[in-house]
Sequence to fold (414 residues):
Amino acid sequence: MTKKELVQKGVARINWARIKMPVVSAIAEKWKEEKPLKGIRIGACLHVTTETANLVIALKEGGASVSLCASNPLSTQDDVTAALNSAYGIPTYAKRGEDTNTYYQHILNVLDTAPQITMDDGADLVSTIHTQKKELLKEILAGTEETTTGVIRLRSMEKSGALAYPIVAVNDALTKHLFDNRYGTGQSSLDGILRATNYLIAGTNFVVVGYGWCGKGVAAKARGMGANVSVVEVDPLRALEALMDGFQVMNMTDAAAAGDIFLTVTGNKNVIDRKHFKVMKDGAILANSGHFNVEINIEALAQEAVEQKDVKENVVQYQMADGKKLFLLAEGRLINLAAAEGHPAQVMDMSFANQALVSAWLVKNQKKLKKKVYPVPEEIDSLVARLKLESLGIKIESLSPEQVEYLSSWQSGT
Ligand code: ADE
Fold:
């Protein structure tokens, strides 16, 4: 494909996503006049997808100068990079399959713009600033964080007193994790497994490791496709929830022996480990949807294998000494973004409406904020829900004055 064709493909796909991103589009339209981000430099480290493109275009409409790099080496859509650079004038540093050095060089390219707001998905900008680029701190007003893993990293920075500027945890907005983490990860992870394998899900023993919002979404979708779903959890409450949601609950050792397809979504490392590979069935498929490629112990898998080979795009076969074959998808990186196209536009619309509105809120409230991790203001969260419903043409009920009074009184009973 020529560069021109790549740019055209990117523009067409960005427009396609925009059709299902009415909230972000409405914000961009309004911001053409209002310019709430006028003169603000935003550095973003997000998955370079068509949905992210619509976010950064909206930020630019709001008056910001934005630069973007990838938040994962395998999630970049190269046509989107080409389109953002050439058709939208948004400097974008990302290449699908880039090595670790290039990945970090691209982060440094964004940091060279001396951002005043950082927008992270996994906290790599924040951690690079705090470890290698402390001189940038004096210019930085605040930041946002998109994902559960990033929020965990930031809370631990806050707790140890290391966090040097305020960050809003966009992930924790209800209009983010109830939809993006649950329905987005649910659908896009299955999509990634299907695109990588083209195998049937129905009738398989499908093991979901982790029952947070992402795990809940994956388990529900796998069940919907006819799999026998088992859940592995460390948290007793979540394990009970999984049980009462109708799934089998077991420990990793039992699940390892029974599973045909494994998907990790815990945010933790080595949740599928050497001892588990040893008891797995021939032909077991391993995939991850957690942010980092640490959930499956790939090093141990490679050590246990007598032979390793690429069998098709996004599938590596590990042959064990006893002849058994295990298949690792997408190098253990986010299967939904590496083998598919990430979450659908409909849910990213809400996540990225939060990102956009929060960045304007940060500019307005910068002087009041401390070096802490903040929740998304409730009024932004409920505005996003309201705008989403409006865009779908859905009317909801409102309370009558009598009902408002009833809810605020305690005297009336039987
Ligand atoms: N994270 C998961 N899916 C995504 C998408 N489509 N765009 C950006 N970030 C994502």
